[in-house]
From TrEMBL, chains A, B:
This is Methyltransferase. Residues 1-114 are annotated as: Disordered. The keyword Methyltransferase applies. It comes from Acidiferrimicrobium australe. It comes from the Bacteria. It holds the Pfam family MTTB.
């Protein structure tokens, strides 16, 4: 059960970079010529106390590189996740399962767990949730407020009275069995395609917020310019392997057609894969049309998933027309669908977590069954978005014990049904980049990693219960996600890491700071970030006593400065623009 | 492997407390008569924006009560931890093992893990660490700079050259086998005694800091008055089950005798058990003399552990005279000893985590073997305090991936040797109560819970790499620890929590906020704290846009206001005072 021996990856020769702990000392020296920069007028602090560029290594743009240890063996052998979560009830299914991960050097599974299933539900508890969910589907039923879907389900022998649909468990289980355990989400740059499934931990930035904020420009209505900037930030952060259209709402544009502009800017300024929202059948169709351009036509599009469309049930137990329309469009195009009930226990679900989970399963599987009925084998993602309500304000309380337990249970449930899992994220209710929002986000990100989420929406930038996408929070979350990636690399126990000879040489009372072994490895083995520093109090005061939010302002600027336009083929770009304009004319928008 | 069914604990009748989400709305109404309070002159904000008392329920003083779910069955049956970590190499040992937890209603083990060993080392990696540690002890040896200890070890056939001692692995293993797997730490109030072992998660406040700080009075040299206040805060927080003498240094007192005053104030103002530091043999003896007063004499003292004394090796591989003197005094008195190498990988240990762990085992087991040689069966705690160095400042970087992995590995190592584990804590390098310190602390607290630490020093209040004990950080950490305790209660899957009838009644499109089931249970089932709120942005602005640090100021005031003097028997108190004065005269201090 232990980690397999790993072949050391030889670091570059670093003799030209001796250890000089003082060279990056903060506050030392005046800010260089770069400190002003093109946005200096926007920054009230003017970089005086907080020089924008530092000689120290920025962790942000190099997130997935080896830190604590080295990358695992390029040939990982049988996937450890298979061992941790043995396939159940799905052994003989024919799916588009990819047995090998996309990037074989990427660590697999939760960060720090050896030989164990991570979860909060025992086997019998998991079955109890399933049983109650089936009871809800069979006895109570769901409202499906779209006639075509009701007709389809009735034709399969399901009980339909007006829009109330009662689903038979055998039908539901047969439909669930059609969904693949893993699938590839294609990007216009093939190197950026990702596999979803098996604990893939594909992170996207936050999305859907009407507001955005940063410490320099304040909290404001989002615009398309903000959207572009945030897309570029997400593109520049390697740990965010997937984009999200609508990372902030482009409120300056006509709301009937801004989804087109937001999708287009994602496609133009990033070559990572992306997820998008439907909102209606026609918007979902617009997303499909744009995706078809990069896929090379509708036929090519239908061979693979090029987008993940997000649909939410209207909890409790309602699938409304707009959502079913969107789900139908995506299913017909064989595009991936993330089906996520938005459950606030005590408001849109009963107060007990157990009941919330049962309702979540009922709602998600109703949507999933419908999608599989429309297009057998269409990739579906089982979504969890379950939180407690703060009974004092009626608002969602993110990052609290109920949300953590719900996220962990959701992972077990998704594995039980053998479909990829969307859950977790850097969710918080905090209003500002402070200890509250950090605590809440960290709780959720630990749950994200421990439950082995496959698709993580809102992994970075989420603030104020999702109403605001924060630039500083995005930079902080990216650093935290990089920490988790470093933790997933685990502890390497080869002779070089044991360094017994070095211990012998230093001997009792020695000091390793200047040891050749330390000088050789500290740049590759030590996780250091400009955001998370250990400094003397006096030096920190000399720097103007910045809190982490202020330091994060520099971090997102550094990230944005490091953004490189991936470029786009001129013909593809023209086609995308034409597609957007056609749709805009059809809508009749400005 | 599932959770066993739990008998519901009937909540009190709550019909007199209807759900009124608006009644505790923040910013509504003027602060009440209590808002000024005796410390109003110390609070620049005067409670205007941040009224000190709120009608909302304070989570702080009620930390261990049921939140997300109910307390587990009072009869927990075989301990789940035993199942998760089957005893190895220790099956036939005769120890003071307690098979039943002290408080049977307290949840056992890590918070959220079902059926798995939580760790980062595979079985073979764990053995590799052990092997290298034995190599260090046998081939390199440790310096033990105290003659009596060297003589004792030589008499057992160990190789002693000057102060360099090379220990045979069979000798070390035989000594380790003498240490109990669990033991009871007695408190002067018997109801407050705790069991250490088996994942007991006994938390203490931070300690050893020269400075303390709060947002009202600023950062300052600690005094005895601060020490008393912090002891009272820790006493008032149920989640801190153990005190720590020296929660801040009483810098206003003579440094030759202030340990007496700090120990005395812990004993006077709290009736919880406590840990203390030695620093020298005579200080360790003073601690023993005071503990003997509450135990009822030296003979009674030696029957149980009444204190945990902390000793640190002087890494790498040195046990200096003062520490060995203290260890000897405590071992002779049969008091518990926490043995903790303080390892900074890349400074006091080699850069690789693997080497750091091997060195940690070598140093800790050398101390443990010596203690067991002096007094067979004396309770010992295997300590881990392993962090990376921030290579830019040379300071310890707490809460980073290396520290998390080291903490998790330490738990596996301690279980391998079958001794209780001291590790984790709310450690951080951040300078202020901000997103950095919260992120670092949360990482370490997740590692604390996942590794099932037994004794958690510095669980609350740690700031600035331990140089400062922060009142606000203490209040925040106490809230976070309460969240973990709620998570440990897991998900209850009885019919009341499934609430299928309620789902049926509300039906598709319903709303659970005012459902009788919600009204009946929301006070017991929902985790709510005044510190972590979900509020509308406009309300938050109306309240003066407080960050979590400012909110935490109210929280520690609330905690301190809730402190109740446990009282002390007048005769015992007089004996303690006499004991302190005798020692002070002996020392010749003022």
């Amino acid at each position: 059960m232990g980690h397999r021996a790993r072949h050391p990856r030889r670091p570059g020769h670093r003799a030209d970079l001796p250890l000089r702990p003082q060279r990056a000392r903060v506050g030392g020296g005046a800010p260089g010529a770069h400190a002003a920069g093109p946005r200096a007028h926007l920054r009230p602090h003017g970089g005086q106390h907080l020089p924008r560029r530092r000689p120290s290594r920025s962790a942000v743009p190099h997130a997935p590189r080896g830190r604590v240890g080295r990358l695992p063996d390029p040939d990982p052998g049988p996937l450890p996740l298979q061992r941790r979560h043995p396939p159940r009830r799905r052994r003989h299914r024919c799916t588009r399962l990819q047995r090998r991960p996309q990037d074989p050097r990427r660590p697999q599974g939760p960060p720090v767990i050896v030989d164990g299933t991570v979860g909060v539900l025992g086997e019998d508890q998991l079955e109890a949730v399933h049983e109650r969910a089936m009871t809800i589907l069979e006895d109570i039923g769901v409202e499906i407020r779209q006639e075509a879907a009701c007709r389809l389900l009735a034709a399969e022998g399901q009980k339909v009275e007006d829009s109330r649909v009662r689903l038979d468990r055998h039908f539901v289980e047969a439909m669930v069995a059609r969904a693949p355990e893993r699938f590839t989400l294609r990007a216009r740059n093939p190197d950026r395609s990702v596999t979803l499934g098996g604990g893939s931990l594909v992170h996207t930035p936050s999305g859907g917020a009407p507001f955005c904020s940063d410490l320099e420009r304040g909290r404001r209505d989002g615009t398309l310019a903000d959207h572009v900037e945030l897309v570029k930030l997400a593109h520049a952060a390697p740990v965010l392997r997937c984009q999200q259209s609508g990372v902030v709402e482009a409120n300056d544009l006509d709301d009937r057609s801004r989804h087109l502009d937001m999708d287009y800017t994602v496609l133009r300024w990033s070559d990572k894969p992306y997820i998008c929202y439907g909102g209606s059948g026609s918007r979902a169709a617009d997303a499909v049309d744009l995706a078809a351009v990069i896929a090379g036509g509708r036929e090519a599009l239908e061979r693979d998933a090029w987008i993940v469309g997000v649909v939410n049930s209207n909890s409790p137990l309602v699938w409304d027309r707009a959502m079913v329309d969107a789900l139908t469009v995506w299913a017909e195009a064989n595009q991936a669908i993330a089906i996520t009930p938005f459950l606030l226990v005590g408001a849109t679900a009963p107060l007990g977590l157990a009941g919330g989970l049962a309702q979540q399963v009922a709602e998600a599987l109703a949507g999933l069954a419908l999608a599989q009925l429309i297009r057998p084998g269409v990739p579906c993602v089982f979504g969890s978005f379950l939180s407690a309500v703060d009974m004092r304000s009626g608002g969602p309380a993110f990052g609290m014990p109920g949300g953590v337990l719900g996220t962990l249970a959701g992972g077990q449930i998704a594995r039980r049904y053998g479909v990829p899992y969307r859950g977790g994220g850097g969710l918080c209710s905090g209003m500002t980049v402070d200890a509250q929002s950090a605590t809440e986000s960290l709780n959720m990100l630990w749950a994200t990693y421990l439950s082995g989420c496959d698709l993580v929406l809102h992994a970075a930038g989420w603030l104020e219960a999702g109403l605001t996408t924060s630039y500083e929070k995005l930079a902080l979350d990216v650093e935290v996600l990089s920490m988790f990636e470093a933790m997933r690399e685990g502890i390497i126990t080869d002779e070089e890491h044991f360094a017994i000879d070095t211990i012998r040489e230093e001997g009792p009372g020695g000091m390793f700071l200047a040891a050749p072994h330390t000088l050789e490895h500290f740049r590759d083995w030590v996780w250091m970030s400009p955001l998370f520093r250990s400094d003397a109090h006096a030096n920190w005061v000399k720097r103007g006593s910045p809190d982490a939010g202020q330091v994060a302002t520099q971090a997102w600027h550094r990230l944005l400065d490091g953004y490189e336009d991936p470029g786009i083929d001129a013909g593809t770009d023209a086609e995308l623009v034409a597609c957007v304009e056609r749709a805009r004319r059809r809508i009749g928008a400005a």
